[in-house]
Structures are given as C-alpha cells and as structure tokens.
Amino acid sequence: xxxxxxxxxxxxxxxxxxxxxxxxxxxxxxxxxxxxxxxxxxxxxxxxxxxxxxxxxxxxxxxxxxxxxxxxxxxxxxxxxxxxxxxxxxxxxxxxxxxxxxxxxxxxxxxxxxxxxxxxxxxxxxxxxxxxxxxxxxxxxxxxxxxxxxxxxxxxxxxxxxxxxxxxxxxxxxxxxxxxxxxxxxxxxxxxxxxxxxxxxxxxxxxxxxxxxxxxxxxxxxxxxxxxxxxxxxxxxxxxxxxxxxxxxxxxxxxxxxxxxxxxxxxxxxxxxxxxxxxxxxxxxxxxxxxx
Length: 292
Known about the structure:
The protein is of the alpha+beta class. Helix content is 16%, strand content 36%.
C-alpha cells in the first residue's frame, strides 16, 4: 500500500491543485491531497499526502516558515504584486533600526485581517471568488502568532525589505506586507515569497516538480517519520485484533487527556492514531487496517 508524504518544491506559476494532479499521475493514485495551499506565484515547500496518509494531515504541525520581499509605497487589491494597483505613495526615510521598531508590533500573538483575495470562506464561498466577482470584502481579523520575524535586508532606494518569518497556521504574509505598509503610512504589498517550512517538512526534504517525470517517482517520507513529534504506543500481538475492531487500548504512558498518540503495530508499521480518553486508556481515532 502506498502511504506517505512527498515534499514538493513548488515552482511559480502552478497552483497547489495542479501539483496534486501531477502527483496523482506520477504515482497512479487517486487519493492524494496537499497540506497548506500556496498561491500560484509562491514557491517552496508543499507537502503532499498519498494514500491513507491523507488522513494524517490534521496530526502534523501547523507552523510554517517563509522568506519574502515586501514592496513599500504600493497598495493592491490582492496585497501582492499580482493584484491591481490601488494607490502609490512615497515611502518614508527609514533605516534598519526604524524597521526593527515597526516590525516589533507584529511579533507574537496578533489579530490579522486576511486578504480579500484569499481562500477564506465567506457564506460558504471562497473569498477570492467573491472578490473576482466585484464584491467589496472586508474580512474580520483572526488571531495568529508570528513566532519569528527577522529583517534580512533593506533597500531604501527601491523601498524593498526582505524578511524571514516563522508563523502559525492561518497567517498571511500578504497581510503582513499590507499592514506593515499601512503602519508606515505609505502602503505596502508582497513582492515575492518562498515557503521554507510547512507541516514539519523543510526545503532539504523537498524535490523539484521535474522529479515526477522520472520513470520511478521519488521515494516518500514515511508516516512514522512525519509523526515523530508525537508520542508513540506499540501494540502487542494480543492487542492487534481489538485495535482493528476499534476497541480502546491500555496505555501505560502518563499523557494529558486528548493527547494525539501514534499507534504502531507489532510489525513496527503505523497502525493508526488514537487519543488519550482517560487515564491509561487510548481511544482509536484512525485505524488503517480496520477489521470488517
């Protein structure tokens, strides 16, 4: 059974859905899904789950990391250079210390308003579809966390700064560019972006899209490697029949209630996922080789 993760280094100009279609053809599978949509213009880490691994995506780390450039002085309807220009203003005279002081406002837990052109649901529809139909959207702000925000370079002539960002799921770097520009009084938008980490995977594990054209597609990252950040429980031979029938299992580990636990079969392969339901008891949530 094909079950694992492929980490693509997504090129610019291709949608995340288009990458999934390429993977389906390369591996001859229908059951393929991606973790964390990337805009077509954005490059970098796109984790793709194959086979039963699609059901493991919710158990992976949601944090992400990016490296991007922000253009000050320009506001667009999509908060990036792909959008329609709305306003152009001169940027103020700034040095690195000024920018550091301003960036401090965005570090840690903040409320962030998603871009109007985004995949956020509005009354059952994607915001970008409504925006393209001409609707004026002002999406409500949502809590996100920016763990790391590092100024890498500042070009006062071009009005461009380069940042390294580590953030929680749901954070938009386009919104960060827009809000930074608004705080500086000149407007801003995202000029370019590359995702360097997502769902616990990074660029070192990624393969280029061209690798899918080889006679033998790239090997997959095993589910156990992808879930290594979670506690494990190994079943004994006598436990396996009950596990396959969905029965709770005794667990000697001292874990908090509702902790996600990786369950490994007697053969050392992934058997599924469970949650601590009470002291000393695991409740199956995902059984890969269920009986019946």
